[in-house]
């Protein structure tokens, strides 16, 4: 990878981290036993994105069975910006990490405590991500001024800033 490619990749990773930092809920997509693509909302954890995403689930759920059979997953972020993150899901049974992630929402949602043996962590080890920045007012204003002074590199109306990053 050239120095320019490396710099671009690091910039893309930074933007992706910013997108994820402001996201509370994402869509986790798995493959069902009959080969259908299934998505469901999942609460994100407040941890620094390091190419891994973390979720909590129960061992008696359909998603647990689907990931056990096929660990290839996708995580979709929808908000002011958008991202699609693909990778492999692995189960982690770490009581200290469950405790770290635990909150009142989980307590009400699962109706158990963090140390319940039916709870399991899903760690998505991201391989590749693509994101689209659309809701950035500062960028829109900057593009307007670039266009006003004749800079042809500005984003055209209706276009989004789009990057793909290998993780």
TrEMBL record:
SUPFAM superfamilies: FMN-binding split barrel. Pfam families: Pyrid_ox_like. Residues 14-152 form the General stress protein FMN-binding split barrel domain. This is General stress protein 26. It comes from Desemzia incerta.
